[in-house]
């Protein structure tokens, strides 16, 4: 099953992901997420599973993009040249494929796919920049300026790479869980002078690869409620935003676990 989980910080995203079938590989781009989730809570035994070797942790720290450093003068010379992103992407990809090939592994968790999408795009931009540079790192004579962004048609390649991540997990019949940060939604808003402009709508949305819904079997929005409101007790919740089973849509589970969602899906399938 391909599952997307998104929400604000400290709403139980990683804990929910680590309740998935074991053995499990946890690929950590958002360094620190695992340390916060490494405990037993609400029936989810992350700490015990990690100590038993059922959770394998891999860390992928993003490289600095700061140019060159003069240690004697303690100065930094900024650079528009992307470095290390391509290497990080292919390092991760090799380990991801190895995880898929490991018959014992049942689940791979990517924390976060928001950062993986950024690395995928920046790594591809690095490849494009490298075509502009000579062996000394200088622009080739036929290049007028170093490119600093991908052009809209060029996002086809990063999109293809992300789809490959999903399709390969489906082909190998692995559970794949993609965690995402939340971000502000931008769109048409009414300005003070009565005109319509572009700005924050006040709504929070999933941040990262936009086409997740095309491949995911389930997308869950995690929230934390500090106190009782109406029929909802205080605690962690998982709200279903997308599901292959229509009966699961808009359902909200308190103290959600992977097993609870899987059980509901199995019941609906009969």
Offer a concise description of the structure:
The chain has 270 residues and is α/β, with parallel strands linked by helices. Helix content is 31%, strand content 29%.
Key words describing this protein structure:
270 residues; alpha/beta; Rossmann fold; two-stranded antiparallel sheet; globular
What does this molecule look like?
This protein has 270 residues and is an alpha/beta fold. It has one domain: Rossmann fold. It has eight helices and 13 strands. It has helices at 13-17, 33-37, 46-51, 85-101, 113-132, 156-171, 212-215, 258-269; strands spanning 2-7, 24-28, 40-41, 44-45, 55-59, 68-70, 75-77, 107-111, 175-190, 196-207, 218-225, 235-243, 252-254. Strands 1, 2, 5, 8, 9, 10, 11, 12 and 13 form a nine-stranded mixed beta sheet that branches. It has a two-stranded antiparallel sheet with strand order 3-4. A hairpin with a 4-residue loop joins strand 6 and strand 7. The longest helix has 20 residues, at 113-132.
What is the secondary structure topology, with strand pairs?
Elements: E1 2-7, H1 13-17, E2 24-28, H2 33-37, E3 40-41, E4 44-45, H3 46-51, E5 55-59, E6 68-70, E7 75-77, H4 85-101, E8 107-111, H5 113-132, H6 156-171, E9 175-190, E10 196-207, H7 212-215, E11 218-225, E12 235-243, E13 252-254, H8 258-269
Parallel strand pairs: 1-9, 1-11, 2-5, 2-8, 8-9
Antiparallel strand pairs: 3-4, 6-7, 9-10, 11-12, 12-13
Helix pairs in contact: 4-5, 5-6
């Amino acid at each position: 099953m391909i599952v997307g989980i998104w929400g604000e910080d400290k709403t139980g995203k990683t804990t929910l992901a680590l309740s998935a079938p074991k053995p499990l590989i946890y690929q950590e781009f958002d360094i620190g997420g695992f340390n916060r989730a490494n405990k037993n809570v609400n029936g989810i035994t992350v700490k015990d599973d990690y100590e038993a070797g059922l959770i394998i942790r891999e860390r992928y720290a993003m490289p600095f993009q700061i140019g060159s450093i003069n240690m004697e003068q303690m100065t930094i010379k900024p650079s528009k040249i992307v470095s290390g992103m391509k290497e990080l992407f292919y390092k991760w990809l090799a380990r991801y494929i190895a995880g898929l090939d490991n018959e014992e592994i049942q689940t791979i968790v990517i924390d976060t796919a928001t950062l993986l999408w950024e690395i995928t795009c920046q790594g591809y931009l690095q490849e494009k920049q490298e075509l502009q540079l000579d062996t000394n790192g200088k622009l080739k004579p036929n290049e007028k300026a170093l490119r600093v962004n991908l052009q809209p048609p060029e996002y086809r390649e990063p999109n293809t790479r992300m789809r490959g991540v999903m399709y390969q997990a489906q082909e190998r019949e692995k559970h794949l869980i993609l965690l995402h940060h939340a971000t502000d939604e931008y769109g048409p808003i009414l300005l003070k002078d009565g005109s319509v402009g572009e700005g924050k709508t006040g709504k929070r949305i999933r941040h990262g690869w936009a086409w997740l819904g095309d491949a995911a079997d389930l997308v869950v929005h995690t929230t934390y409620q500090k106190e009782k409101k109406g029929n909802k007790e205080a605690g962690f919740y998982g709200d279903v935003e997308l599901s292959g089973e229509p009966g699961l849509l808009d359902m909200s589970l308190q103290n959600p676990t992977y097993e609870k969602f899987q059980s509901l899906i199995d019941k609906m399938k009969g």
